């Protein structure tokens, strides 16, 4: 549903983001659109990270000839518009350009900023695509203010085709790393079930059961059994013991499968001991 933005926003903007695409070759339409949509996506994300509960949109107010120069006006609409003052919006625009520069500079140098998700990595790939596809291009993002009709640049960030290629190489390598599977063994760790099944499970196949090993992650992960002996020991506790399986802990050896740095499944190698979990207060 389209948002209603007041006319005053566009008649006297206090802050704009200016995006310049200085390419030596025609820009493919998808890369052109991605250069703008990636900014909008990350701008909204930057406000969310500040705890600002608002609808943030970026509007193109003018595109000038020659190099592609677009004035983008960030609009933050809250339930109480007066709360978001012009000073605050100027500050947000400047912070956004500086934050954008910090992270792209890190990626350019082959360093992945901590905490970037795959979707955020894709946002940066989209942002630099138009320049990366050009042998001699540049892209500039500026935060500027208008006072008495005079434009003043408050923050700027520029990168070249070579920079863009380095950024995409870093992102491609990180995405591959995040998809890589590896296994790490853990000895005698405490595991408890969040979902159990009385049925037999094929060895080396996911059982449909889920368990938590807090020393590895608090998230419940699917389990599989590396041997029928390990499965029989646990299934005995599920099927025949009087106590509730969810009140028991198991001292186990596990091989943990990781995708990147994220554990995704537990393979139970051996069961050493069954323990009564302490009662919760």
Helix content: 25-40%
Radius of gyration: 27 Å
Number of E-type strands: 10
Distance between the amino and carboxyl termini: 48 Å
Structure keywords:
281 residues; 2 domains; five-stranded antiparallel beta sheet; five-stranded mixed barrel; 34% helix; elongated; disordered N terminus
Description:
The protein has 281 residues and is of the alpha+beta class. The protein has 2 domains: 169 residues, no CATH class; 96 residues. It has 6 helices and 10 strands, in the order αβαββααββαβββαββ. A 5-stranded antiparallel sheet has the order 2-3-1-4-5. A 5-stranded mixed beta barrel has the order 6-7-8-10-9. α4 packs antiparallel against α5. The protein is elongated, with a radius of gyration of 27 Å. The N terminus is likely disordered.
Q: Could you give the topology of this structure?
A:
Elements: H1 7-11, E1 15-22, H2 29-49, E2 55-64, E3 68-77, H3 86-108, H4 118-132, E4 138-147, E5 150-160, H5 161-179, E6 181-195, E7 206-213, E8 217-225, H6 228-239, E9 248-259, E10 262-276
Parallel strand pairs: 8-10
Antiparallel strand pairs: 1-3, 1-4, 2-3, 4-5, 6-7, 6-9, 7-8, 9-10
